[in-house]
Amino acid sequence: MTAVITKPRGENIVKLNSVSWETFNRLLNELGDKRNQRLTYHDHILEIMSPLGRHENNNRFIESLIVVIADELGLNLKKFGSLTLKSEQFQQAVEPYSCYYLENEPKVRNKQQIDLTIDPPPDLVLEIDITSGSLHKLPIYANLGILEIWRYDGEKLTVFILEKETNNYQECDRSLAFPFLNLNLIPDLIQQSLIDGETAVLRAFRKCIRDSQ
């Protein structure tokens, strides 16, 4: 008998076909902002994702690492969580698990609502995909002009950088937002946090960043 090892589930996902753009927008308004589900709309397909514990824990811990980096480097960081990002032109929408303004932070500093028809898109998007892949979302993010995406699958962190000439993403070994960062360190820190505790690991990570300056 061969043992089959499967990764623990990180999300529950439901897909609905043949959904019109008008129906999606009506549903978005009816659901409101106070919900746990994350929606993606592309090519008349609506994906509804409900995160489970492993998903949320990884998401929040990676965000804490990003906050530490920005704080120690003296960068203004604006967090918008699962902001609904829509393109009326392409009739596409996506809700990342977390998104951040860094370079464009001054342009949205005084805002708590984002309108992509007048505001710049987030500089960095974080996707957590324990159960399923998010690569089908890349064309949506490209059309929205998101320059950098971090994708964590429970084992590996992958960074995608948008090539404006082709409007396609390329996998890179360095972050555009934090080019000095060793990306392999993040999965190791996540695992270490399960042993030493998140606060202890974040404290040590902060000291590491500070000492490297």
From TrEMBL:
Keywords: Endonuclease, Hydrolase, Nuclease. Transmembrane segments: none annotated. SUPFAM superfamilies: Restriction endonuclease-like. Gene3D superfamilies: tt1808, chain A. One of its GO terms (molecular function) is endonuclease activity. Residues 21-183 form the Putative restriction endonuclease domain. The keyword Iron-sulfur does not apply. This is Uma2 family endonuclease. It comes from Cyanobacterium aponinum AL20115.
